[in-house]
Amino acid sequence: MSASATMLPERATHQQTRTFNQQLVLRALHDRSPLSRADLARLTGLTRTSVGDLVGTLMEDGLVEEVGRGRSSGGKSPILLRVAPDGRHVIGLDLGEAQFRGAVVNLRGEILRAIGLPLEGRDGDAAVELVHRLVDELRADDRAPLLGIGIGAPGIIDTGTGTVRWSVNLDWAELRLGPLLEGRFGVPVVIANDSHAAAVAELTFFRRPRPNNLIVIRVGRGVGAGIILNGQLFQGDGHGAGEFGHVSMGGAAPCRCGRDGCLETLTSMRSLVDAASAVEPSITDERGLVAAFLAGGSGIRKLVLDAGSQLGVAVGWLVGVLNVRHVLLVGPVAAFGEDWLCEVQRSARSSVLGLLAQDTQIEFGHVHDDVVALGASALLMEQQLGLGLVR
């Protein structure tokens, strides 16, 4: 029995079967190209006749291309194939708190163009209009067929329906952003929490070999985590998995979520800049904070390292609950460097059972301005072509 037959619904239609088998072929080429048709038949469990037919269709559609000949094993040299990098493009968006950033991404995860538009206090409908403008500008000079739009946004996101259930900074509540954009631009749209998207980017593009389980913690103006379990993005029953930036740490500082003492009020870059400016009024932004920390000022170093210690406690909780051995830290905090990372590691390991701490790697992830846009693009590729996440 072929690999496709074992994974399809019992009464799958012919078109469903064909689409599934096309995705098997595309996935094999995406992960292991270049491959010959015989290689594809062996890897997918499909017959050579089926593979030949599927490859022909995919080539006509511009998704697969020939890239020369391989070594002969005695007969005619096989023709090698790969996914055509520019057979489709994806628009990936990062709806951040200071700016909305977008990128045109090809099927190899290469960023072809990226731009950012300042948010400048926009929220509600005005923020939606800025999304429209960003997509329009990214599409203006791109002539490749558009596969769809992938979006990473702060807050609690129902990826299944494309709904922003709650995003406090953007004043969005139960906003069906995905369907709105699908209606405007006529292409599929996937939307996910920004930390979830960052985790998908790490897994899809930057981790070799790919771990089955991974936690990616993104610390910038906010704090959140993306959790990969058994090769799949874990979103939780209410789509809020990883929102641990709004777990109370017992402090009194008011949080933008309406509660007091959240982890975010102690460890986010926004909170650290505010606290540092009280120590050194000349510090007004993240760049100034990082410079002061690296310069060695004792007051600023203590403030930043104390925040790293608090974050480490929360990381220890996650490790204790999930027993995930790979934890990556991404975002602007990476600029603090090894001293900050060591404090997070020390605190995390002292906050969890020794055996679990011993088995856990806590390190910086890939430093990339467009990591959220890349991850959102990967989710779109997974949905439409079967590419991206590990199965």
Tell me about this structure.
The chain is α/β, with parallel strands linked by helices. It has 14 helices and 15 strands. It has helices at about 5, 15-30, 35-45, 50-60, 125-140, 175-185, 195-205, 265, 270-280, 285-295, 300-320, 340-350, 355-360, 370-385; strands at about 65-70, 80-85, 90-95, 100-105, 110-120, 145-155, 155-160, 165, 170-175, 190-195, 215-220, 225-230, 230-235, 325-330, 360-365. The strands form four sheets. The chain has a five-stranded mixed sheet, sandwiched between helices. It has a five-stranded mixed sheet with strand order 13-12-11-14-15, with helices on both faces. β8 and β9 form a beta hairpin. The longest helix has 25 residues, at about 300-320.
